[in-house]
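Hey everyone, long-time lurker, first post.

I ran two proteins through the pipeline my lab uses and got sequence/structure pairs for each. Pasting them in order. The first:
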Amino acid sequence: MKKTLAAAMTAFALVGVGVLGTSADAAYELSPEVKTATPALLEASQMGVRTYVNPDAAMQAKPNKDAIVVMSFGTTFKDTRAKTIDATVNEIKAQHPNTKVVTAFTSHIIIDRIKAKEGITYPTPEEALTQLKNEGYTRVALASLDIIPGMEYNYKTTVYNQYKHNFKKATIGTPLMYWMGQEDQRDDIVDMLKAYSTQFPQQTAKDAVLIMAHGTPDPSNAYYAVIQDRIDSMGLKNVYIYSVEGSPRLENVIPQLKAKGINHVTLMPMMMVAGDHANNDMAGDEPDSHKSQLEAAGFKVDTYIHGMGENQKIRDIFAAHADEAWQALQAENK
């Protein structure tokens, strides 16, 4: 077992990890000493920006016709969609002129409701990739508007794995936060907080900012603990993260606020859009909303109902991560 584990651990080598937006190779690859890697090991070693080159000779003989698919959960809140998702997609389009860019939503409920209310049809990622194949596109770069690599991002990477064989080359980029600064990797969480904190209000010792995350049953919920660690190490005073559906919860944070003598808090969503969670769970007037719970606990509460996608610096990071997938698509096949 020890020899097997040691062999597996030495099979990976870190390569080409650069600062934000400068490297399309932010990934691991197998050591050249590994001569007989199985398909499972090869797939497991794909981290960061993932690339698939179709081995079929007939497929490779086809001319390059490239497209980008930007994948998001979506939202039925039209105004915030325009300011966040649409604004980010437009930035990606501006950076890749003369390239077909498709917006795909993963939520079937949201897709159906938008179609019924607005007459707009958003494809699922599967539908988008099928349509691109039918239109003769041969290479595709997938971009994610997810915040962390949780269940939603896992869904997108599964779509990538299932549909990549339909193209001569396919790539998929990373969400807003992926790398954590381990070994020589960049720290996406620090980059996010530098951008995100530009929208924080001015604070006194009696004020706090509470960042509302979504939460997930996926082990990636641990990202929130890392985010809190970076908040503290960066010296962002009286800033706490909590989640709607994961851990930590609001009730875990309230005792910390009281212990510091804080009497005023600003609630702020760490979500791409300011949708149902921001408007209702966080800022609603119902007794179980986060605002109402905090007011009942004696705090004065302000709410910042703006999605992260309204922040230009956050959009810049998403666009840079999309460009990493694009640059990997353009890179010479190895």
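...and the second, right after it:
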Amino acid sequence: MFIQVMQGKVTDEEGLNRCLDKWVNELQPEAIGFLGTTQGLCDDGTFIALARFESAEAAKRNSQRPEQGAWWAEAQRCFEGGKIEVMDCPEATSWMGGGSDEAKFVQVIEGHTTNASRMREIMNEAEPQLRELRPEILGGTLGTYGKDGFVEAVYFSSESEARSHEKMHRPAELQSLFEEESRLRADVSYYDMHKPMLVTAKR
């Protein structure tokens, strides 16, 4: 799986929503290799979209379509200074089944890591206990880009349950894994999608 992350500060939310609807209705059917998108507007006005593709080649083919280029130019006008940051994550994995269209709350975590491979191992090791202790977690994805950047998305059945359970006591083994993960991460930012827009490819 390949994940392309796009984000920027929105200045025209209404215009952006029109663009997003246009992409789903007009451009998505011909986006070969497209798997789905998780997108939403966060508290500080930052819009984030995580587009999943079967491969980097599929994402590249989509970007090279003339209609995609025209759509992109239109979408850029909805952002501050016309700037949209793009992060290509060639190494992307999912855990606990990945994301879910049933999610009512999505948290995106961005930062840098000294050991992306170990981060993935920790997710796999923690999964059995998380399934039991945190039933509101529906899954997640982790993508890495550049030298040490990462973008993680966690999908929840509801924000209220997520906030409530994040304060609960953790077993020693799980706490140890989370502490190790924290030591592997730096410059971490959290973005909350209170009303995520979830798009799955039409088959």
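Reply from user beta_strand_b:
Welcome! Quick read of the second one: DSSP finds six helices and ten strands in the chain. The chain has a mean pLDDT of 94.
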